[in-house]
Amino acid sequence: MDRAQIIVVRHGETTWNLEGRRQGHLDSPLTARGIAQAESLARRLKKFTFKALYSSDLGRACRTAEIIANTTGHKVTVDERLRERNLGIFQGLHTEEIRQAHPEAYRLHTTLGPDYVIPSGESMRQQVERNIRCLEEIAQKHLGETIVVVTHVGVLSGLFRHTLSIPFQAPRRFEFRNASINIFTYQNQGFWVLQTWGDTGHLDAPELGDGL
C-alpha cells in the first residue's frame, strides 16, 4: 500500500517559550539556543533522504526551516494552514495576565473544552481540523516518499491525538520538545501511524536541551 512518511518537527526555542507567553499567531524570535537547536536538527535531518520541506508561515517555524534548508539543500514550501492555534486575546500574555485581563474568557477556555472559540481566535477543534486537512493534502502529494514538516506544539498535539484516537478532552500526558523529531506515516484513506515521538538525540549537549 502506498504511504507517505512525515517527519514533523517543532521549531527551535523562542524568547516567548522562555518567558512562558502564549504565542499563537503572534511571534517571537528564536533564542541563541533555539538557533543552535535548529542547526543540530538540520545536521540530523541531513542523514535522512526526504523529498520536500514544508513549514508553517510563522516566523519561528520559517526560521527553523530556513536553517534546515541551508544544510539539506531543500526549498521551503510555506503553508499558513500549518500554523499554531489562533489564541486571539490571549496571545502575547502569561497565564496570570490572561486570568487578570480576561477572567471570563479564561474560565470558559478552561471549562468548555475543544469547541470553545477564544475571542478573536479559534477553537482547538477548528485548529486541529485545519492542520489535519493540510497534512493529509500534503501526504497525498507525497505517497511513496518522505517529507519534513516544521510546525508547532498545537499541531503536533492535534496530530498525535488524531493518530492515536485520543479525545481532545483527555488530559495531556505527553511532552513536546523544541526541535524534536516526530515521525508519522500516512496511508491512503486517511490512516495515520505513529513511528517515533519526541526524538531529541541530536540535542544531547546540555546547552541544547529545553529543560522540559
Describe the SSE topology.
Elements: E1 3-10, H1 15-19, H2 32-45, E2 52-55, H3 59-72, E3 76-78, H4 95-101, H5 103-111, H6 124-141, E4 146-151, H7 153-164, E5 181-187, E6 191-199
Parallel strand pairs: 1-4, 2-3, 2-4
Antiparallel strand pairs: 1-5, 5-6
Keywords:
Rossmann fold; globular; 37% helix; 7 helices; alpha/beta
What does this entry show, briefly?
The protein is built from seven helices and six strands, in the order βααβαβαααβαββ.
Radius of gyration: 17 Å
Q: What is the CATH topology classification name?
A: Rossmann fold
Strand order of the largest sheet: 3-2-4-1-5-6
> Helix and strand succession?
EHHEHEHHHEHEE
Taken from the alpha-carbon principal axes, the silhouette is globular
**Spans of at least 5 consecutive residues with low confidence:** none
Number of domains: 1
CATH architecture: 3-Layer(aba) Sandwich
Tell me the number of helical segments per DSSP (H or I, 4 or more residues long). 7
What integer is the average pLDDT?
95
**Percent range for helical residues?**
25-40%
The CATH superfamily title: Phosphoglycerate mutase-like
What portion of the residues fall into strands of 2 or more residues? 15-25%
Q: How many beta strands in the DSSP annotation? A: 6
**Main β-sheet, in a few words?**
6 strands, mixed
